[in-house]
Amino acid sequence: MRKADKVIITCAVTGSIHTPSMSDALPITPDQIAEQSIAAAEAGAAILHLHARQDDGRPTADPEVFMQFLPRIKQSTNAVVNITTGGAMGMSIDDRLAAPRRAQPELCSLNMGSMNFGVFAAAEKITDWKHAWEKDYLAQSYDLIAPNTFKQIEMMARDLGDRFGTKFEFECYDVGHLYTLRYFADLGVVKPPFFIQCIFGVLGGQGADPDNLVHMKNTADKLFGDEYYMSVLATGRFQTRMVTMSALYGGNVRVGLEDSLFLQRGKMAPDNASQVKKIRTILEELSFEIATPDEARTMLGLKGGDQVAF
């Protein structure tokens, strides 16, 4: 693993799993997404990972919705914009690629395998729903696979990488996903440096256990040597402890309301910036320095904010 002198903070601003009934702080409209993204960047996030939503909070892949907040974020910050290719449950590959093809960003997420992505338990915990769509949306994950086949992964990597020079945040929910990434690296479909996001705590993927983080790092070290940067995200109450552990092992961190709605035990986060400020404080207290957006660009070999289409 490449151990950088400075830690990259990614903020995942809204995602596609949490629904409006879960938190009033979750940004829904383009204005809310733009405002919270800008505030997160000002708090220290070098990378902003972005999804889009309809006015009722339902996830959308519509490029026109993305284009209502992407230019505003670019005009107001120097942050690296990272657009999802995972999209949301039930979206087709063409849906998931619609916004990245339009925006041609510096960075996109790319899931490294199909998986059960279980969020159905959340539907059992809420009784007062703001919108009719929410409960069924979450419950469908009991019998739904999040597809990312080898063919789909190669198509997305070649489409965005070869055509637009976009690099990837490789989302790895289990150790097998690292081997899939190695396969595509050996084919030359993707090239180093690799930005590997190790994900913990999603039902269907690996649990948020420190031993699992160590195993992921050790496996990635064997497969990629010094050709990769590690980052970690963890869901819910595991967020802070697992991402801090990533930094202690020489990696980077991801926080944000996509991954956790809480700031600390029993206290909801009022916005994304509060989570960024919290992890920044922890890291600086541990004598880490925080990477700027341009430093993150240099580390990850990104094409630059002047090469995007928004």
Automatic annotation (TrEMBL):
UniProt keyword terms in alphabetical order: Metal-binding, Transferase, Zinc
Pfam hit, one: BKACE
Domain of life: Bacteria
InterPro entries (UniProt xref): Aldolase_TIM, BKACE
GO molecular function list: 3-keto-5-aminohexanoate cleavage activity; metal ion binding
Cofactor: Zn(2+)
PANTHER family: 3-KETO-5-AMINOHEXANOATE CLEAVAGE ENZYME, 3-KETO-5-AMINOHEXANOATE CLEAVAGE ENZYME-RELATED
Protein's name in the database: 3-keto-5-aminohexanoate cleavage protein
Native organism taxonomy: Bacteria, Pseudomonadati, Pseudomonadota, Alphaproteobacteria, Rhodospirillales
